[in-house]
Design goal:
The two termini are about 55 Å apart. This protein has helices at about 35-50, 65-80, 85-100, 110-125, 140-160, 170, 190-195, 205-215, 215-220, 265-285, 310-320, 330-340, 345-355, 360-365, 365-370, 375-385, and strands at about 5, 10-20, 25-35, 125, 135-140, 230, 235, 240-245, 245-250, 260-265. It is about 50% helix and about 10% strand. The longest helix has 21 residues, at about 265-285. It is an alpha+beta fold.
């Protein structure tokens, strides 16, 4: 490997060196440098050493926008991301990455650029949702910034793999720490009163199932009678239902831990027994025939899947009317709180909720464990053993 200096001006130099290519070939590389001869010699020595270690990448005019969009298309084409995830990625790329970093050359992206990008997103990452008179912008949440950062970092990591960049600057400059939103859950008194308050309401059965099992909204709406065993008092979570731009989609849980069997307390068994009876009577009136294992437990009137977003809106209206002030997902948090208060170990809670690791459970519900330090210590010990 050889190098050569050539003066281009008073303090300007052309650095020329050759690197090895496959099958014995050589490739000549040119770089411009400003500084003294000694500094130019030092820079040439650094470039030669880096090339010797396999750290050379060819100069490129590829921009951040071009690279991230290209990687995104490849992820879609290869099926590496689900349609719902693709929608989220597209929004992050076009709203938060491209407008602020898209015009920069990929190879010249620095940690300082990443730091400045975070600051912009935090302070004026989007326009006011309902529009201030002066068009004043507001910041996006730290959680959204974290999501956008991970998409950028994923694309840069693949850029390294394809010799487009030397390093992943997004892995060096980390995203801001996520500021946790206040977790709103039902009080013990509200939990005790809820079955009676929901008696006869169409949302009563799915609400009580979610509250006393901790399953997610999409998991509840994807539940089929073939995965409900009332004799053994178990439901088997095998699918989830999500909304995409192409329509509703059933999918497998994100992780192996999401595939789980959940034991049912007596109130859920009784609720599902009564719900099944009411559902059979409704199907008889509508001429839909008997229930099969493939039929949904909580379908729309015609037996089709319910739209999770529309279902969530119905719940918000009901919760507001009842003065509960919690989202449907808040029922899952309430269930976790019940288990923590009952002294259930964190490994069991994690498995019931479908978390891939007890560490996730501890992270999400750390503030609930802190109410009782002894209980938190027991939970951590159980997590380490699990």
């Amino acid at each position: 490997m050889r190098g050569h200096l050539r003066r281009r001006g008073a303090n300007s130099w052309e650095l020329k060196y050759d690197i090895a290519r496959g099958e014995g070939g050589r490739h000549i590389v040119y770089r411009s440098f400003k500084g003294t001869r000694r500094e130019a010699q030092a820079e040439l020595a650094r470039l030669l050493a880096r090339a010797a270690d396999g750290g050379h990448v060819d100069p490129s005019k590829l921009t951040v926008a071009e690279h991230v969009r290209a990687r995104f298309k490849q992820w879609q084409a290869s099926g590496a991301i689900s349609p719902k995830t693709a929608e989220g990625y597209a929004g992050l790329i076009e709203r938060h990455i491209v407008p602020h970093l898209g015009g920069k050359l990929l190879q010249r992206l620095t940690t300082r650029d990443i730091e400045a990008w975070h600051s912009i997103l935090l302070t004026k990452g989007r326009k006011r949702r309902y529009g201030a008179p002066d068009g004043q912008a507001v910041g996006v949440s730290t959680r959204t910034i974290g999501h956008a950062h991970r998409v950028l970092s994923k694309s840069l990591c693949e850029g390294m793999r394809h010799d487009l960049v030397l390093k992943n600057v997004a892995a060096i400059e980390r995203a801001p720490k996520v500021t946790a939103d206040a977790m709103v859950i039902l009080t013990p008194e509200q939990v005790a009163e809820l079955p009676a308050r929901l008696d006869g309401h169409p949302l009563g059965p799915p609400t009580l199932v979610a509250l006393f099992t901790g399953i997610r909204r999409g998991e509840a709406l994807a539940l089929r009678w073939g995965n409900v065993d009332l004799a053994s008092k178990v439901i088997r979570v095998r699918e989830s239902l999500e909304v995409t731009r192409a329509g509703l989609r059933f999918k497998e849980p994100k992780s192996k831990a999401g595939v789980r069997d959940i034991t049912l307390p007596a109130i859920v068994v009784e609720t599902l027994q009564a719900h099944r009876k009411a559902l059979l009577e409704r199907r008889l009136v509508l001429g839909q025939g008997k229930l099969t294992d493939a039929d949904l437990v909580f379908p729309a009137w015609d037996g089709s899947p319910q739209n999770p977003d529309a279902f969530g809106s119905l719940w918000i209206k009901l919760a507001t009317k009842l003065g509960l002030g919690v989202s449907f997902h808040g029922l899952r948090h309430t269930h976790a709180s019940q288990l923590i208060d009952a002294g259930v170990d964190v490994v069991t809670i994690a498995r019931r909720l479908g978390h891939s690791s007890p560490a996730i459970t501890l992270n999400v519900y750390a503030h609930l464990f802190r109410k009782d330090d002894g209980k938190a210590a027991d939970a951590i010990n159980a997590a380490l053993k699990g």
